[in-house]
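Thread title: Can someone regenerate the structure for this chain?

I was given the following input by a collaborator and told the matching structure tokens would be attached. They weren't. Posting the sequence so someone can regenerate them.
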Amino acid sequence: MTKTSIFLLILISGFTFILGYNLNTNPSEVVNQPTTSNSVQTFNWKMVTTWPPNFPIFQEGIEQMAKDIEVMSDGRLKIKVFAGGELVPALQTFDAVSQGTVEMGHGASYYWAGKIPEAQFMSSVPFGMTTKGMNAWLYFGGGLELWQEIYKPFNVIPFPAGNTGIQMGGWFNKKINNINDLKGLKMRIPGLGGKVLAKAGGTPILLAGGEVYTALERGVIDATEWVGPFHDQRLGLNRAAKYYYYPGWHEPGTSFELAINTKAWAKLPPDLQKIIEVATYSVNQRIYSEMEVRNIEALQELDKKIEILAFPAEVLNEFKRLTKIVLDDEAKKNPDFKKIYSAYSKFQQNNADWSTISTDAYGKLIK
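Best answer:
Regenerated them for you:
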């Protein structure tokens, strides 16, 4: 073969590569192939949360989720996470997502109770379901569909994204011997639990996590609930109050949410949407599992330093009675609240029937 022939062969091969087909390919087939620009389209999103900076498990867990999404998407979806107060105030997380100021947010739906009262069922209800029941209801019992429905007018798509497990009842600077000890008590407690406390004669106060310790230490509040032994100890609440009560009647299994702006979501291709969906499943389990381990460890330490007390039966029974009144009153005022209350209650009863002969029976067996 002459040098001229070799040159022509190389030239033809080069043109074949550039055009994207070989000599046996029909040119009309090449036109329909996806373009490189579409396949490497990237997205840079912002996420805000309700948690303090470097907050263990919650903030750290959601930051890890953002990193996981970037890896799984091969860098096509990058999410910069801001803790509460770094970009917007912690309790304005939902508004920031709804208005499109940011694409994503992480928090708990009872923080927006003033805007969407019925959304509280998607976080936690006093004397409601534990984590096991909440996950079952949300994922496969119709709860998530109801959640999406009530958020739709606000241009927000929700996903379950973490759970605290059963919380503690809170920190108090005086003993609670009977229901009268709650009268006039100023306590940091959100959502429906706060309404129940108010019915009992107390004063509920909503504070972001970063404000809780200072308020309790300075006497701005008399008591506070936060989460559980691990986070409570890290926040230093054992240095600001004398008595630690259980159980967390007000939050038996608090679900967190990943909120996504509807318009931002619509711009993502299906594979990136699926990556986010799968990532929320992962972080939901991750946060709950780590909570259980850390609480076990922290409780062992706290038990040596403070007085851990059970609420008297009289107090718990009154809380339960008042919870029914609060929920019924809210349902009378709000048809959407009534609709979700009904769906939640029906599932909770069915779940309780199953738990009685499964989880509860086994728990008694191994005691």
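The chain has 15 helices and eleven strands.
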